[in-house]
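hi support,

uploading two proteins for the ticket. first:
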Amino acid sequence: MSVISESLSLHKIVKKHYLSLASGAQCQVTYVWIDEAKENLLCKTRTLNNEPAGIRDIPEWGAVWNDGGSIEVKLVPVRMFRDPFTLDPNKLVLCEVFDSKHVPKGSNQRSQCVKVMEEVKQFQPWFGMEQEYTLFGLDEKPFGWPPQGVPFRRVSCAVGINKVYGRDISICHYRACLYAGVKIGGTNAEALASQWEFQVGPCEGIEMGDHLWMARYILHRVCEDFWVVASLDAKPIKDRINTSGCHTNFSTKEMRSEGGLQYMEEAIRRLSKRHPQHLRVYDPHGGADNMRRLTSNRSTSSFHDFSTGTARRNVSVRIPDHVSREGCGYFEDRRPAANCDPYNVTRALVETCLLGATGEDDDEERETTAS
């Protein structure tokens, strides 16, 4: 293992020379899309003769789809970012996936989310998502942990080599996101050794899903350089009660204005009526991941029962203390799992809170559009 590690380090140093070579007016564009499993990312790169000024300058491309058979699909660029790995003028571009008849493939939840966000744009929906992740070595053991496990008590936001593992990865990811233009808002160490969190937002409408997916892609690419794996598993270590979520903050212009608390309370009332429906789309496995995670332990709520409260962490939906005192702001839905699809989460929130979705018919429509 040590010989391979030394070889890998040499490789990363040598690579700097090639990245410094001039490429003229040509531009490398890396296409990024969500795979068939609906929680992993794929990418490939092509050359354009000139730096694209916007998303319209980037052509569609083809790819192979492997959901039971190798078929060709279309990659349609939807949002462009600067490339923090090969630097300007190169780009990263997030893509939607369509079949030959321009029908969205199953992993393409963005296509329907765009339509829903267009319906509610007058509400100016803002989102902020708190992405937790856990670092593992290639031996599938938690990164940095000694053989006997972690003997000390951990707390969030800890400092010290005996308390946190992987800070360099968190810092590098943060800077790479800033360079790319991802709306990253912050980062902190989490309550499990080698577990971290970053926040994306505030983002309006569809850009929430776009920016979080690209932040995830950048995280995995940074981890490649450190030879570490970033896991978004909702319960990353089986014999520990610690979990990973993607708490989602939500507001509208009415909620953010004076007297907005009444709009938040009404939205939460509506959410309480559709608890099972939300849990089915708050992880990529129909609620199975959250069933392992939401056990009422370690600041999690119950999977089976909806709950709400002010300044409490063990509830389904929380109103922060400062929001309650000021009477306006946002609320936090603490149910989404770390591996959730942000398009599904944000769509469910606006459908329930703003469009009045009420029952099973809404879920049947969602399943139809995802097939």
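and the second one:
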Amino acid sequence: MARTVFRLFTMSVAVLLLLGLRVAAEGRRNRCFFNRTQESCVCYNLSEETASSIIQCLPATVVEFWGGDLEKYTALPIRDLDDSVIDTLGSLIIQKIIIGNVLVPEMLLARVLKFFSYTHVQELAFESCIFQGTGDWRDMEGQDLPILSLSFHNVTSAPLTGSEPAFSSLGRWLGTLEELAVTGSRVTSLPCAIGRLLRALHSLNLAHNSLGDGSLAPAFCQGALPQLQQLSLHHNNLSSYHGVCEGVGLLPQLRHLDLSHNQLVADPSSSCQWPPSLLHFNLSNTGLDEVPALLPPHLEVLDMSHNHLHAVDVSLSSMKKLFLSQNLLQAVPSIRNYPMLDTLHLDNNFISELPRAEVKLLGQLQDVAVAGNPFSCSCSGAGGLQALAATGHLGQGWPGDYRCHSPEQYQGWQVAQVPMSVLRCDPATVVAPICVALALLAVAGAVWLARSRSCHRA
């Protein structure tokens, strides 16, 4: 009975891909382990003798298979499933499958992928895999699959360019895919024809690859990725701010763009217009020394932390969140330029104090962070921060990460501990009333003296 269930289950979750995995893995037994709390199951290096342990994975929603060499199964006969097997596949609750450290013959993958149509698997992930050879995908023509999220991390395969005919056979399924990630896999291009197949894709992650400026326009061509909303291109070989702008200009629904960790150069004479739908823009760690003159017109979130900015003099009425930590700023940007702003991060810059006029405006924000700056604990410096902290909107780091850089007697002190006496910091509020009182006394004395002399003469 155990072996029968195992066969059915194997056909469902690995569809014969993982049968007989038996590579040695130091410190691990060749079996499956079920985590009841997380409803996940991890299988290492199954052999025919220990394969029955896969039964533990029946109640899991996430199943992982690690290790293996599937070349020997490329010629394995794979027949159509009978009704009892199909019913068994439909009764399983597995929603995500992760396959790692496996050499995957594409010919075998092409023959068994269609069996996933009988399951409820919505996410399929490959990690540190090698895809070998070329598959015959004609059996997938017009085939629906429940898989909505597909990811590849640190995989090796033939270049995507030239594989368009194979992908066209997967068009029906790819047209329903919503999330795709190909990361850390040395990708240099994404053919336009593939992008046109991904009609429902709303999230694309191409981080940690080798994409250059010239690869974007062909990838995001006319008609490609019409529903794309989130695009991650961080840690690639992009260098031209203008080139990226031109490259993504035909993505009508783009809302989130991550260009961080690319060394960008912004041409001030550029006239490129970003998609007006773009709301979230990550330009952190891009080596920029000024805020680009041309930003998306309706931008709500801008991250320019970890750059070389000396000033921020742009004005965006739609801006809600602005992240400027780890720059070279010596002053707080004028909050008046951002009437919708609710979050401002300025950690680890060179700001010495907060002007009184800005403190009042900063106090109206929901989240302000200014930790790690060389604060001058003069009355305006320490007083402004203490007043801001009193509003309850000063972010994480207060009070420990807010320390005085000057004057000498307070150097190293927490800003919160600096005494702010009225006589020291605002003597006018004390001296002025005293002066007025003395003046009134002097006038009263003069009047009394004048009346006394008048009476005495009389």
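thanks. also noticed: The chain is about 25% helix and 15% strand.
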